[in-house]
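Quick one: structure for this chain?
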Amino acid sequence: MYKVASHNVNSIRARKELELEWLKREPIDLLGLQELKQEEKNFPFEEFKELGYRCYVFGQKTYNGVALCSKDELDEVYKGFGDESLDVQKRLIYGRRGDIWFINVYVPHGDLRGTDKFYYKLHFYEKLHEFLKENFSPKDKVVLMGDFNVAAEDIDVYDPQVLKDSIGTMPEEREAFKRLLSWGLIDAFRYKYPDKVQYTWWDYIGGMVWKNKGMRIDYILITEPLKEYLRDVYVDMWPRRRRTPKPSDHAPVVAVFEL
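Got it. Here's what it folds into:
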């Protein structure tokens, strides 16, 4: 079995100890990390290497930053879109292992409707869609993972009425996410579990993780050729339900493939 995981760590510096402990408990073959908030030169390469990982990092101080950490050396790795205006913010890294491409993305959080951050988020989705069309085919074996900052449907939020038209549930955001899927991507978790209620993010305030009042905004998306190899998808709650060291506000999503 080959395990792929996606985790927004909300600062690798703050979460390093917990992340490494989790990887000892849950051996992952390829891990996509988001929101490193750390430059590449300060990434804990050696600590990950001790667990058998080769990490490829597209980092940024204080904000953003993404990484791919793999038990096998990747055949190719690329950092960013190749568009200077987009790559000011380090939000995309991708690489190939054999005939499978792994793309790790951290979509902007956005803001209230009408703000610059709201429009930037929609612009980012448009550019991500173009990136897929220009570089890949739905017939390729592609895994697109990351924090997409959108809850695709009402089942993906703890209270659709309370959260209606808020950041992550606005119709424009959901439409942008669905358009991305329409390129030829399958939401692996929802494919395996059409009716299951499961979240990946919980606000720190109010002990929301203990009340299970969260949102599902982290995804592992796959193309059709990988569907037959998919065996399971789950959210590992162990790293999120920690009191010390303080966890990320996200839990990792794990997909299991028989490759």
